[in-house]
Each structure stands twice: as structure tokens, then as C-alpha cells.
Amino acid sequence: MSDIESHPERPAPTLRYKSGSTVRTIETVAPQSTVSRIRRAAPLNHIHAAPKLTANHNRKHLREPCAEFLGTLILVFFGTAANCQTVLLSNGTQAKGGWLSGAIGWGVGIALGVFVSAAVSGGHINPAVTLTQAIFRRFPWKKVPFYWGAQLLGAFFGSLVTYGIYRNAIDQFEGKGVRTVPGTAGLFGTFPLDYVPADQLYDILLIILTTVVAFFNEVGGIGCSDPLLGLQFLATIFLVLSIFAATDRNNGPSSPALVAVAVFFAMTGITAAMGAQTSFAMNPARDLGPRMMSAMFYGRKVFTFRHNYWIWGPIIADFSGALAAATLYDLLIYVGSDSPIAYR
Questions:
Q1: Which residues span the membrane (predicted)?
Q2: CA 258 to CA 263: how far, in whole Å?
Q3: Has residue 2 been placed in a domain?
Q4: What is the structure's pLDDT at 191?
Q5: What would the DSSP string read from start to end of 61-98?
Q6: What's residue 30's pLDDT?
Q7: Both 37 and 106 in a single domain?
Q8: pLDDT, tens digit (0-9, with 9 covering 90-100), for 242-282
Q9: What total number of domains does the chain contain?
């Protein structure tokens, strides 16, 4: 016999009293036994659900970084795979793609990455976007490091998958075991074209600390007029402006699907118009993750090439461009109360 069966509830006693000529009967509530109170308050089957609730709680906190990881992986895989197919599988008589196919590959990658992650994490898939959301849209700062880490890992593994698929094609293209920088390393990371003199690149930090005009007109050093790194800055402005406009609720209802379509056209257009000279990073994770991956096979030269170009172009120029874009949008267009510089 169970404990519950051995503790039956007592029937409720009745009280009778006389009020004038009327006899009234009142039923009182019997005190419940300890066992019955436990049974009613917390059924036994709920006790076994506690581990499941804990697992769901932990999973809830991981969903956003996981969405950023997966979205960035999709972006980088589609983009770098399009690069590899266009370059490695072409020959003198038949091309397997052109600049447009690469632009579409990156456009599809960012659209699918945003579509997969937008409803869960906001679909940043770009550290520069995460930073602008924290500064201009009250995105929680405590989440920023986790988003950045997830985005970097996603970019790393996305490019690693591409390298695994096209490793034999790289061997055939360059020679078995031969890996050159920029060469085929440029299929994964971003590198400027060869006609940019090396001494134009290392002083960009000085230019950023002066004025935006100097950044465009004298990128790389005082007196230099080649604006290749400024293209990274300008391309990121166009991309982030498109993202801010697509997610601005004052422009109309937005959904992950509509945002994905908007960034597809933005990415494809930017790549087709300005991508050739600097490989259109516009995303610090998109460059740093694949660069870290390629360092395992190409060596440290992927970081030291052209006076550490990867710092000045894909990192500093991209973050600067994103901040400039957010500032411009909020000053000229945005009317929401969550921006530190926009007013209703």
C-alpha cells in the first residue's frame, strides 16, 4: 500500500446552530494531510521535468550566439566557395563563373545567413553591425563579446569547410602542397590589388585620427591619393546604411525575409561595384576568421602581408565605416527614441 493510500483524507465535519426558529448546517473544510497537499501542489510527474527545464533554460541563453555562429558560417561558406569555384575551376577556354557569380554568391550567403539568424539573434553576423547596434540601438553590451566570438568562429569554420571541399582544386591550380600569399590565400581572406605600393598602407591609423576627408583622399599616408582602403570604409557605409534602413520600423513593417532580401541586393550591388580592388570585406569577422584558418596552411604571411593590411583595412576601416553609417542614418533619417543622437 502506498503512503498516499495509507493517509486517506478525513470527511469534513458539520456544524449545526440555531438562529431564531431556523436550524442552519455548515460544512467545515477538513485539514488536508501533508501528503495530499504535496500531491495537489506538485504532482510527482512534475518533479521529473526539472532537469529538462534546466536544459531548456541553458539552451535559451545559447540560442543567440549559436544563431550568429550559424549565420556567419553560411555567409562565409557561400562567399568563399563562390570565389573558389570562379577562380580554381576556370581554364583558358572555359570559365566556371565570373565577377557576377562571385557577387551573387556573397549576396546569397548574407541573405541566407540573415534569414536563418534574424528571428533569434537579430541577424547581425558582422561585428561592426553588433557594435553599431550596441551604441545606437541599445543592444545589451554584455552580449557583444559573445556575439563577436560566435561570429568569428562561424567565419573560421565556414572558410574551413570551403578549404576542405576545394583543397584538391588548389593543389591542381598551384601545385601539390604549394600555397601562395596572396595567391589562393586571397580566396579566403581579403588582400588589396598588387598595384598599390606597400608604403601606402601602414600609416592609415594616423589618417583615421585626422579627418574623414583625409581618410578618403590620403589613405595610407600623408600625400598619398590612392583611396583603396577608403573603399573598405565606403563599402561598409553602404552596407550598414542598408541594414539600418531595412530594420527601421518607421520605414514600415520588417521581417527576417524582407531584411534578407534587402541585404542580398545591398551585398550583391556593393560587390559588383566596388569589390575587385579590396575584396569587399565590410565585415571584420568575414576577413579575420578565414585569415586565421588560412594561416594554418599558408603561414603567418597572411597576417604580415603589406604592413599588416588586415588591421587597417578589414578591421579599422570596417568599424569606422559602420559607425559613420549609423551616425549619418540617425542624424538624417531616424526618429526613434532609442538612438543617442536622433530626436522625435
A1: 69-91, 103-125, 146-166, 200-216, 228-245, 257-276, 309-329
A2: 9
A3: no
A4: 82
A5: HHHHHHHHHHHHHHHHHHHHHHHHHHHHT--SS--S--
A6: 52
A7: no
A8: 999 998 888 876 788 888 999 999 999 888 887 766 677 88
A9: 2
Using an 8 Å Cβ cutoff, are 120 and 276 in contact?
no
| 341 domain residue, yes or no | no
User: What would the grid cell of residue 314 be?
Assistant: 578589414
* 3-state secondary structure (DSSP) of residue 12: coil
Compute the chain's Rg from CA coordinates: 30
Compute the distance between CA of residue 316 and CA of residue 128 in angstroms, rounded to an integer: 10
Of 47, 72, 111, which is closest to residue 239 (Cα–Cα)? 111
Q: Which of 274, 293, 280 is nearest to 184 (CA)?
A: 293
For residues 173 and 32, state if they share a domain.
Answer: no
Query: For residue 160, what pLDDT is reported?
Result: 97
Does 270 map to a domain?
yes
Encode burial over 258-281: b for 16+ CB neighbours within 10 A, e otherwise: ebbebbbebbbbbbbebbebbbbb
What's 135's domain CATH number? Answer: 1.20.1080.10
Residues 6+ positions from 148 with CB-CB distance below 8 Å: 127, 130, 285
Q: Which residues pair with 93 in a beta bridge?
A: none
Same domain for 19 and 153 = no
Cell 534569414: give the residue.
115
- Tell me the residue range of the domain where 84 lies: 65-332
The x, y and z cell numbers of residue 179, run together, are 600555397
DSSP state at residue 32: P
Closest CA to 237 of 140, 114, 323: 323
308 in the same domain as 166: yes
| Distance between CA atoms of residues 164 and 299, nearest Å | 17
Cell of 106: 556573397
Q: C-alpha cell of 112?
A: 541566407
Side chain identity, residue 23: V
Judge if 40 and 157 occupy the same domain: no
Residues of the chain with pLDDT under 70: 1-58, 91-97, 193-230, 253, 276-278, 342-344
Both 106 and 40 in one domain: the answer is no
Here the cell at position 99 is: 565577377
Please provide the distance, in angstroms rounded to a whole number, between the alpha carbons at the two ends of the chain.
Answer: 72
